[in-house]
């Protein structure tokens, strides 16, 4: 089992819809969690940090479920500009990056 | 506040040569990370430097090496270049300690011919 797993997608979603991604992790001692977005051929950009049960920033909500060892990212009222790859990062002893979930928002 | 900067933007080398990539972290950040991202693939962790010391390295051969300078900038060296080293090399910096958020530079695109 990989230390951090994400559904690679792609998720094809109509504009305005709500979309959710999950990211599972294997190290129960993990302390910090992050979501990044990466546009094609660009560097990853930090989207959200999750240090407790969850975090919300506008249309984006991240939730942590320690019992089931996953974090989720919810995007409401999706925009065309949300099309990107979303990367989950988990810190145990070191930072472990997921392979990413590709999201395509269609008009 | 200036972000993470990397140079050069693009680098073209031939097989067997050496490449040197440079990174300047955000002011106040002491940790620098290097990643390799081949086209269409995920991030592969290369190296982590903090306070001038190498703290961890990924599953890469010894011809990938680097260092961190007293001003916290960093250099990645790749010796004996191979065609499969062609990739985007990303540098990220963080405050270190309990704050693990990494902020990335725009990367150096290395092409080995």
Mean pLDDT of chain A: 93
* Quantity of strands of chain A, as a count: 11
Structural class computed from helices and strand pairing of chain B? mainly beta
Query: Per DSSP, what share of the residues of chain A sits in E-state strands of 2 or more residues?
Result: over 45%
Order of helices and strands of chain B: EEEEEEEEEEE
Helix-strand topology string of chain A? EEEEEEEEEEE
Largest sheet report of chain B: 7 strands, mixed
Which residues of chain A sit in consecutive blocks of at least 5 with pLDDT less than 50?
A: none
By DSSP (H or I, 4+ residues per run), the number of helices of chain A equals 0
Shape field of chain B:
globular
Distance between the termini of chain B: 37 Å
Number of E-type strands of chain B: 11
Question: Please, could you describe this protein's structure?
Answer:
- The complex is a heterodimer of chains A (107) and B (113).
- Chain A has 107 residues and is an all-beta fold.
- Helix content of chain A is 0%, strand content 56%.
- In chain A, the strands form two sheets. In chain A, strands 2, 4, 5, 9, 10 and 11 form a six-stranded mixed β-sheet that branches. Chain A has a five-stranded antiparallel β-sheet with strand order 1-3-8-7-6, with no helix packed on it.
- The radius of gyration of chain A is 13 Å and the shape is globular.
- Chain A starts with a strand and ends with a strand.
- The mean pLDDT of chain A is 93.
- With 113 residues, chain B is mainly beta.
- Helices cover 0% and strands 50% of the residues of chain B.
- Chain B has strands at residues 5-7, 10-13, 19-24, 31-37, 44-50, 53-57, 64-68, 74-78, 87-94, 103-104, 108-112.
- In chain B, the strands form two sheets. In chain B, strands 2, 4, 5, 6, 9, 10 and 11 form a seven-stranded mixed β-sheet that branches. Chain B has a four-stranded antiparallel β-sheet with strand order 1-3-8-7, with no helix packed on it.
- The N and C termini of chain B lie far apart (37 Å).
- Classes of the chains: A mainly beta (107), B mainly beta (113).
- Chain A binds chain B through residues 32, 34, 41-46, 49, 87, 89, 91, 94-95, 97-100, and chain B through 33, 42-43, 45, 48, 56, 88, 90, 100-107.
